[in-house]
Amino acid sequence: MLQIQQLSKTYADGTQALRQLTLTADRGLFGLLGPNGVGKSSLLRTIATLQSADSGTLLFDGIDVQQEPERLRRQLGYLPQEFGVYPHLSCQALLEHIAVLKGLHQATARREQIAQLLALTNLSAVAGKTVAQFSGGMRQRFGIAQALLGDPKLLILDEPSAGLDPQERAQLHNVLCEISRDRLVLLSSHIVDDIEQLCPNVAILLQGQIVLQGDTQDLITPLTGQIWQAYGASVAVPPQAQLLQRSYQRGIPLLRVFAPQSPGPDFQPVAATLQDRYFLALAQAHALAQMERAL
Ligand SMILES: Nc1ncnc2c1ncn2[C@@H]1O[C@H](COP(=O)(O)OP(=O)(O)OP(=O)(O)O)[C@@H](O)[C@H]1O
């Protein structure tokens, strides 16, 4: 289990990336959701022992991550948002190289593990190609294969589906579900659909703090019967409703709002989604910040 208490991090230029952040995550896929720049990567890099926090505690399965980073690293797989590869090495050779760096010295066991991971990530047929020649989806699956070397109990994936086409995303999702059975997979994204499809548990991060955390379905259910949609450019947001999203459907303007009762005859009730919960959290945080500024 990952237990984070009151974690804070301020960069040298004064940017406060994490503000007394508290979070608990157990086994399975855990989604970390938040807009750009709220501190997701800062949190993941800190958990991955790539940077230190200024204060707070960070425990994983009884390991004090800040006191014993080496012990944590033996249990850790990490896929950063962007990762470089040696351009001239094949996928197979690169995995061999990383496996040795991770301490997998026994050649037969190492080869077996690499073969299993190549099969799991659907890369066996292209293992002889250089990773530089891979498509975006293949690269991400390679990134997951390298992170899984050594069978880590904690896997950290920073925006793993960014830039993938729908087919590659679906393939990646299959791999993620497959590998999350007996470990904690901490996954960051600003693609709400990805988190809703994959993660039974989620946390929403805003301005360096967790503003909402829980079972994904339990966060959505209380919104049942309170999400409404209206089509048309002339429809206004009624005062008793909270605007969640203005968008388009096949070119027609679409308004999506939160309201305990029907906001008016133009609005139809629709099923609530994680995106609604997320936008509501953003709107509430924005309103709170405005109130604080006004005081
Ligand atoms: N090394 C650094 N030095 C100074 N500021 C930094 C550094 N790394 C990140 N920041 C700042 O800290 C804040 C949080 O950044 P971070 O990358 O953790 O956010 P994020 O939620 O992962 O964003 P994104 O989704 O865009 O990757 C931002 O204001 C960012 O500009």
Structural overview:
With 295 residues, this protein is of the alpha/beta class. The protein has 2 domains: 2-214, Rossmann fold (3-Layer(aba) Sandwich); 221-294, no CATH class. Helix content is 33%, strand content 28%. It is built from 9 helices and 14 strands. A hairpin with a 5-residue loop joins strand 1 (2-10) and strand 2 (16-25). Helix 3 (91-101) packs across helix 4 and helix 4 (107-120) runs antiparallel to helix 5. It is globular. The two termini are 40 Å apart. The model has no long low-confidence stretch (mean pLDDT 92). The structure holds adenosine-5'-triphosphate.
What descriptive keywords fit this protein?
single chain, about 300 residues, alpha/beta, Rossmann fold, 2 domains, four-stranded antiparallel β-sheet, 9 helices, about 35% helix, binds adenosine-5'-triphosphate, ABC_transporter-like_ATP-bd, ABC_transporter-like_CS, ATP-binding, P-loop_NTPase, transport
List the helices and strands and how they pair.
Layout: E1 2-10, E2 16-25, E3 28-33, H1 40-47, E4 55-60, E5 63-64, H2 69-73, E6 76-79, H3 91-101, H4 107-120, H5 136-148, E7 154-158, H6 166-179, E8 184-189, H7 192-198, E9 201-206, E10 209-215, H8 216-220, E11 227-231, E12 242-249, E13 252-258, E14 268-269, H9 274-294
The chain binds adenosine-5'-triphosphate.
